[in-house]
Design the sequence.
């Protein structure tokens, strides 16, 4: 029986488990992660308003592991040995015949004073901090923005920040206190949302103007203080700062022979195969993949990459051509608590639908459907 080790318990990792079992390959699956819990991060945008609680988005995975016959190894990865055949962890070594790395990325926190900003996509606890800060504020300035990895432009996750921006605006209006707050959106790029496509840039800026949200665009970010954002184009006060920095690879990658991209991610080919390593694959935020410069770091892409990686790993075990690829595809609903804007981009297509109440409910329905697979 083949032994396959999966590192991580996020979107890519859990999709990989399901795809392996669908393949019919007789294999022992070992999944390694610090906690047997799946956190549905797309839903954290609804925590500040109370539409979601943390426990709504946490799914214990013991039942899923039992159904899928997965051996769970509770630990953090610390490195690799034997050209990938041995995963090093805090709780001992895990040997494998095939390895799939889905351990996500790490946020670059090098800007001076970044500890004064909340990074929403760090998880449920970060969103709860935003909720609590908003409840305690009677008035003030709220600054929301994102940066990037200068060595790898697509290693970023800016989309959720638009949802926090519009969602907080909507929340304050519903609570009858929007006039006591100033909202500022900031980013080093002159065209926010450019990776979503030209149509999205126009739509997002138009929505900010409609909601009376100020912008500070096109200036490199220098740092933060407890109540100030500093850029090369000037400084401005902020009583609450939400900031999403760029991403890089996990620290445990340094204790391995994994090939790295300029931005610190794992270098992979179009088949999700780690360059120069046998039966080692990567999916999701951990990897750097060939493709268009707008290819997103989002759950949908992680799922697509995991399917391709599993198809190729299974093919290798069956002595078949391992030539599956994934499509570059961006699909998201930019939600604002009661409506949503659909954005889609492929190499041939780019469009954005204006805010519609129906799309908010579509996003909620998708969350229910996705999570029920793992409950």
Sequence:
């Amino acid at each position: 029986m083949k032994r396959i080790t999966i590192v991580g318990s996020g979107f890519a990792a859990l999709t990989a488990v399901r795809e392996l079992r669908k393949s019919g390959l007789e294999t022992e699956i070992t999944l390694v992660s610090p906690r047997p819990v799946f956190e549905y991060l797309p839903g954290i945008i609804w925590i500040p308003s109370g539409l979601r609680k943390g426990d709504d988005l946490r799914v214990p995975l013991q039942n899923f592991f039992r159904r899928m016959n997965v051996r769970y190894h509770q630990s953090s990865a610390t490195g690799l040995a034997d050209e990938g055949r041995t995963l090093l962890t805090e709780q001992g070594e895990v040997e494998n015949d095939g390895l799939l790395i889905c351990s996500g990325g790490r946020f670059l926190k090098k800007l001076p004073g970044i500890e004064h900003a909340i990074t929403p996509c760090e998880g449920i606890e970060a969103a709860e901090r935003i909720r609590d800060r908003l409840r305690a504020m009677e008035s003030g300035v709220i600054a929301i923005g994102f940066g990037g990895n200068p060595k790898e432009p697509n290693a970023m996750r800016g989309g959720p920040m638009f949802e926090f921006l519009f969602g907080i605006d909507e929340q304050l209006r519903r609570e009858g206190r929007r006039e006591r707050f100033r909202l500022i959106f900031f980013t080093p790029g002159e065209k926010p949302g450019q990776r979503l496509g030209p149509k999205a840039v126009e739509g997002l800026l138009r929505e900010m103007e409609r909601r009376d949200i100020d912008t500070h665009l096109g200036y490199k970010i220098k740092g933060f203080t407890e109540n100030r954002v500093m850029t090369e184009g000037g400084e401005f006060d902020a009583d609450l700062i939400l900031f999403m920095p760029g991403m890089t690879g996990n620290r445990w990658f340094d204790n391995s022979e994994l090939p790295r991209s300029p931005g610190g991610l794992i270098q992979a080919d179009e088949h999700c195969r780690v360059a120069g390593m046998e039966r080692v694959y990567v999916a999701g935020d951990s990897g750097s993949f060939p493709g268009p410069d707008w290819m997103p770091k989002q759950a949908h892409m992680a799922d697509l990459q995991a399917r391709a990686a599993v198809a190729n790993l299974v093919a290798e075990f069956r002595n078949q051509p391992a030539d599956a690829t994934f499509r570059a595809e961006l699909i998201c609903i930019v939600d604002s608590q009661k409506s949503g804007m659909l954005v889609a981009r492929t190499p041939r297509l780019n469009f954005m639908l204006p805010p519609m109440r129906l799309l908010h409910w579509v996003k909620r329905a998708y969350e229910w459907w996705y999570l029920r697979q793992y409950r």
